Amino acid sequence: MDDSKETGRVEAFSDGVFAVAITLLVLNIQPPSLSTPQLLVDSALSDYLRHQLPMLLAFVTSFATIGIMWINHHRLFLHIKRTDNTLLVLNLLLLLMIVFIPYPTALLAQQFAVYPSGNLAAKVYCGTDVIMAVCFNLLWHYASFRNRLLSKDADPLAVRAISRQYAFGPILYLISFGLAWVNVPASIILTFMLALFFAVPPRSLRLLP
User: Fold this and answer.
1) How far is CA 165 from the centre of its chain?
2) Count of domains observed in the chain
3) DSSP state letter for 207
4) Sign of the dihedral defined by the CA atoms of residues 183, 184, 189, 190, in that order
5) Is 80 helix (H, G, I), strand (E, B) or coil?
6) Bridge partner list, 1
7) Which residues contact 26 (CB under 8 A, 6 or more apart)?
8) What is the pTM (predicted TM-score) of this model?
9) pLDDT digits 0-9 by tens, 92-136
């Protein structure tokens, strides 16, 4: 079987799930309702927009997270060229976490807007990121173990670089989760920075000895 055809359906289905998840994020940001026209007055609208700033921050962070996870998923399948039942299940588990992200995003934004000192929503949000990082590692390490499902001509250095970069994921997201217990804005900023970290191609980070 042609390698590209074997993983083609997995990639196409995954792309669709990523697209839906990233689109759902914007539904959490609503303009003032026409049933309350007084909110459209400039002074009231200014207050309304200011009230939505936490939601906008959560939207941007989650958009970056999902978008960069999509980039990483694409990178993995440049090397993964075969599938089996276990890989399909692990990929579905990862997609479950991706499509779940809009919920903790909305929860975090709403709690922060109404109760800024609360941190339970941030714990849920950052905890979701921890599980997602673990899912990415499971998918990659299962596929790359002894080149189980990789292309026959996969670059060993590129494979090692991805493994090294991904090894940081669960640890760094756990730090973000810990920060959520004491400082919610700091945990969200770290989450955004981690998204940028994983956007960088692994070979560019010089993580190899």
Assistant:
1) 15
2) 1
3) -
4) positive
5) strand
6) none
7) 59
8) 0.85
9) 999 999 999 988 988 888 887 778 788 999 999 999 999 999 999
